[in-house]
Design the sequence.
């Protein structure tokens, strides 16, 4: 995976999926965190980002997704657990036809390795109230871009 630490901070190359279903979006968090993000993970060396989001959804949720299109490329600068991060993330609109994912309910838990994750389906009309990062996406979920957008986000 493309993630490394320097004396100035941590660099992370990540992909995330925007999965919409019946006017809701899927978000997740590690149980040790007090905030949510979009499901996904780190890109591996020589892996296409489209392949990375498909692999991550298979690993985390056990489902096969189809990539619809790339929405955003975001340079995200933030602090987490007393570390400065410089993250590049590709946000893809993805589709999942697997009914088992939808049948898990609005709240479910998944363990991957030693980490437990909470997944939630959140209505688009209340997503603004969630501690969800990066925040710019909360405002854009109801109006997805038709072309790829580049965003620089300095967190809050």
Sequence:
């Amino acid at each position: 995976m493309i993630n490394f630490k320097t004396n100035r901070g941590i660099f992370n190359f990540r992909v995330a999926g925007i999965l919409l279903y019946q006017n809701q979006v899927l978000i997740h968090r590690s149980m040790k965190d007090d905030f949510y993000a979009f499901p996904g993970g780190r890109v591996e060396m020589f892996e296409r980002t489209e392949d990375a989001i498909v692999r991550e959804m298979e690993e985390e949720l056990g489902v096969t997704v189809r990539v619809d299109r790339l929405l955003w490329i975001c340079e995200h600068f933030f602090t987490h657990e007393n570390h400065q991060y410089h993250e590049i993330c590709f946000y893809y609109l993805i589709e999942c036809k697997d009914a088992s994912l939808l049948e898990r309910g609005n709240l479910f838990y998944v363990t991957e390795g030693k980490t437990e994750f909470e997944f939630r389906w959140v209505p688009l009309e209340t997503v603004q109230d969630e501690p969800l990062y990066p925040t710019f996406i909360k405002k854009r979920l109801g109006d997805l871009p038709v072309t790829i957008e580049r965003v620089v986000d300095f967190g809050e």
About this structure: Residues 107 and 120 are 5 Å apart (CA to CA). Helices lie at 49-61, 99-102, 136-140. The first helix runs from residue 49 to 61.
